[in-house]
Amino acid sequence: MTEPEMWEAVQRSDASYDGLFFYAVKTTGIFCRPSCKSKPPKRENLCYFASGEEARAAGFRPCKRCRSDLLEYQPMREIAAEIKARLDKASSLDDVGLTPRRMTDVFKQEYGVTPKEYADSLRLRTAKEMLAGSPEKVIDVAYRAGFSSLAAFNRFFKQQTGQTPTAYRKEHQVL
Question: What is the pTM of this model?
Answer without folding.
Answer: 0.58
